[in-house]
Amino acid sequence: MSAREAVLAKVRAGVGRVASDPARRAVIEERLRSPARHTVPARTASKPPQELAGLLRAFLESQTATVIEVASTELVPGAIASYLRANNLPARLRAGHDPLIANLPWETAPGLRLEQGPAQASDSTGLTRALAGVAETGTLIVVSGPENPVTLNFLPETHVVLLAAADIVGPYEDAWERLRARFGQALPRTVNMISGPSCTGDIGSSIIRGAHGPRRMCVVIFGEQLPDQPAA
């Protein structure tokens, strides 16, 4: 038996013991149902929604992301159009089949064209919707699927992300609770955690933007964050 086969044999034996032991299996199932909370950083513990939103914005802007806040979804198309004009970018977006994005009043932004489907090589701007924004580190949680194809996060040079103010949470644990509440056991194939546009300093310690993804990132936060917003 090779070393690889020996290791796999031990794994199979261990899994078999757990599967055949009702007590151990019950412990595991209970842990999956009610995962223990880890230590939460003081900067997000018991903070009001307004402070969490401010912390998220500060982190994102420190990574050169642009953050735009609007009061409602009706104002989102105009905000995106203004951002594209200000950066001399084409008035064309590529998005998935997210119902919220599809139902935005795009007619209020004349000249702005929305196309649907996975990102194409010719797309300059991708538009996705974040499941949550984590104030702990200024990170957006974006899940893959037909509603928000993962290629939109990385292929276009500009990435625009929509985030509901009510979906801003403090620690990562709250974001994972929302993920489990929404998808249950059928989790999406990928969960991307994005904290700003792509950059690297690997070559000569010089910061290069767009090396592994978008050069620019714009986060449009819409609506008011509600206190004690339940996971959804």
CATH fold node name of the largest domain: Rossmann fold
Q: What is the topology, as strand order, of the major beta sheet?
A: 1-12-7-4-2-3
- What is the CATH architecture assignment of the largest domain? 3-Layer(aba) Sandwich
Integer tally of domains: 2
Structural class: alpha/beta
Helix content: 25-40%
Mean pLDDT: 89
Contiguous helical run count: 7
Rg to the nearest angstrom? 21 Å
Structure write-up:
The chain has 232 residues and is an alpha/beta fold. The chain has 2 domains: 1-34, no CATH class; 41-222, NagB/RpiA/CoA transferase-like (Rossmann fold, 3-Layer(aba) Sandwich), CATH 3.40.50.10420. Helix content is 32%, strand content 22%. The chain contains 7 helices and 12 strands. The chain has helices spanning 3-20, 22-33, 49-62, 76-86, 99-102, 151-154, 172-183, and strands at residues 66-70, 92-95, 113-116, 125-129, 132-134, 139-143, 158-164, 168-169, 191-194, 199-200, 208-209, 216-222. The strands form 3 sheets. A 6-stranded parallel beta sheet has the order 1-12-7-4-2-3, with helices on both faces. The protein has a 4-stranded mixed beta sheet with strand order 8-5-6-9. The N and C termini lie far apart (50 Å). The model is unreliable at 228-232 (pLDDT under 50).
